[in-house]
Amino acid sequence: MRHEWRPVKTPAHTPAADPELLERLAAEYGTPFWIWDADVLRSRIDAVVSTTDSPGVQARFAMKASPTTKVLQEMRKAGVWIDSVSGNEVLRAKHAGYPGGQEPPEICFTADVFRDDALKVVLKEGVLPNVGSPGMIAQLKAAGYTGAVSLRVNPGFGHGHVNECDTGGPSSKHGVWISEAQAVREAAEAAGMRVTMLHAHIGSGPQFDELHANLSRLADEFATIAPTFKDLEGVSLGGGIPHDYKNPDSEIPLERLRDLFAGAQKQLSAATGRELRLEIEPGRFYVAPAAALVARVTDVKATETNEKGPGVNFTMVDAGFVDLVRPAMYGAFHRITIPGAQDRDHVPTVVAGPLCESGDVFTRDDSEMLQPRELPSPATGDLMVFHDGGAYGYAMASNYNSIGRAPQLWRESDGTITQITRRETVEDILKLEI
Ligand SMILES: Cc1ncc(COP(=O)(O)O)c(C=O)c1O
Q1: What does DSSP assign to residue 370?
Q2: Class of domain 289-427 as given by CATH
Q3: CATH assignment of 38-288, given 3.10.330.20, 3.20.20.10, 1.20.58.100, 3.30.870.10?
Q4: From the CA of 46, how far away is ligand 1's center (Å)?
Q5: pLDDT band at 7, cuts 50/70/90?
Q6: Ligand 1 centroid vs 377 CA: distance in angstroms?
Q7: Is residue 356 flagged as an active site residue?
Q8: What percent of the chain has pLDDT over 90?
């Protein structure tokens, strides 16, 4: 069925903009908490699926961005397959209803290193391993694996949304350098494995045009080497559709990606003389705008200017980098609002959390320096919302400082709200101790 082309829009009335609703939820579940909006998530899933709505083109979800069962079930309903990166992610995908096996390979397992239960899970569940270094062929062989493998290559170009995300080039750890791909194929064949997929993830460069150019270049590179891969069934161009965290409603020209994917599928099929499957596996674009973190302002305070630097207004909140680590980790920008406070005067303020870490600050610039944000003058007791946290938000949360992970709530289209993960307790934390 061909999708009607729809531009991607963030629905205007999200629960994160409704102060009364948020107060009610805060009273019931405490703060901080995450709130998902099913409509926003579905609109994003629909948008990605629209880009793969051509013969032989298939979307996966890089589940590391948000591995919660409810989110995976939404992906599955929409026909989106899974890219997993650990044995446990494979098991979580299965828990959400995805089948193991490779007919078709709905779950792909992309790894830089096999650790923990990964090899055991690959063998038991029969999922397609996407091998990222030559030695992994020998490790699969030693484990008794003789099935199909995918080969992740480093094409030598591409980069992520920030400098820390180096996804392609000499300084990237991911994949096998492209000139070694044939040698690894030969090693795989000698070990009784068929290389059925070629894969690369070049990352969501900061600009859409750059991503588009890099994906076209990647398809050309694959078309050059694909003919010698006689067992090839598919080629994956990886993930990386960017989400604009500063202007989440800005329209991304996804129709250009649909044309690119359809063209690449034809190009690669022509190069090999058989119909290949062209895959993509975005993570963040599906989920980023669909969840927000809601925290309580616990205090406002200020430092004074002295010989070390200018004074700063601080807004203290009860959420920290244990909940949303992206700003502390790479200076990532998240919009911050105080629902119901839009008429107040704006003041510059640094927003900081409860952790015993000076780096527990949400407002940073690209070089990770403190950057006060102009916000409606915050007051103790306000609720503060950190937007666009659906990707690598809860997924990267930790229980550092023995603070339990905040609960995730889910707003359905009809307005009903349910809890999809509860708050982590000290009993959960102590359960691991022997
Ligand atoms: C192999 C692989 N595929 C897909 C993705 C998803 O990238 P994004 O969330 O930027 O779309 C990642 C992200 O790190 C990745 O490593």
Answers
A1: B
A2: mainly beta
A3: 3.20.20.10
A4: 19
A5: very low
A6: 37
A7: yes
A8: 84
Given this model, what pLDDT does residue 10 score?
57
159, two tokens: 């980069």
Joined together, the tokens standing for residue 88 give: 């446990």
Helix (H) or strand (E) holding 336: strand 336-337
Closest Cα to atom 2 of ligand 1: 201
- In 3-state terms, what secondary structure has residue 140? helix
Per annotation, catalytic residue among 1, 12, 27, 356: 356
Q: Which helix (H) or strand (E) holds 87?
A: helix 87-95
Mention every residue, 6+ apart, whose C-beta is less than 8 A from residue 308.
none
Q: What is the pLDDT of residue 14?
A: 74
Give the whole-angstrom CA distance, residue 61 versus residue 255. Answer: 19
* Site residues for ligand 1, CB cut-off 6 Å: 62, 65, 83, 110, 201, 204, 238-241, 281-285, 391
How far away, in angstroms, is 25 Cα from ligand 1 center? 32
Torsion of CA 316, 321, 327, 331, to 10 degrees: 100
